[in-house]
Amino acid sequence: MATEDELQSLHRLVATKLVDQLNSENVKASDLANAIKFLKDQGITLDKNGDVSAIGEMINALPEIDMSKVKSYISA
């Protein structure tokens, strides 16, 4: 059976890996889904009346999408 220190180390490693994946230029939807599941499993949720500035920062960090390119890709 794993010790508490080993479990804490594993938890820290998983969290660090998820953060690295989310900060990657090649972040995938599955990376985001894994991070959300990890947070939910840890009981971490957003308080609707709490500070949501971090979400705004994430949204602002998203790249601009040229919808004409998206439409041409879909039509191809």
Order of helices and strands: HHHH
- The termini sit apart by 55 Å
Strand residue percentage: under 5%
The structure class reads mainly alpha
- Please bin the fraction of helical residues: 55-70%
- Low-pLDDT runs of 5+ residues are none
The shape is elongated
Indicate how many domains the architecture comprises: 1
Over all CA atoms, what is the radius of gyration? 17 Å
Describe the structure.
It is built from four helices and no strands. The chain is an all-alpha fold and 76 residues long. The protein has one domain. The radius of gyration is 17 Å and the shape is elongated. 0% of the residues are buried.
Quick rundown:
The chain is 67% helix and 0% strand. It is mostly helical and 76 residues long. The longest helix is centred in the N-terminal third of the chain and has 20 residues, at 4-23.
Question: What's the arrangement of secondary structure elements?
Answer:
Layout: H1 4-23, H2 29-41, H3 53-61, H4 67-75
Helix pairs in contact: 1-2
Entry keywords:
76 residues, elongated
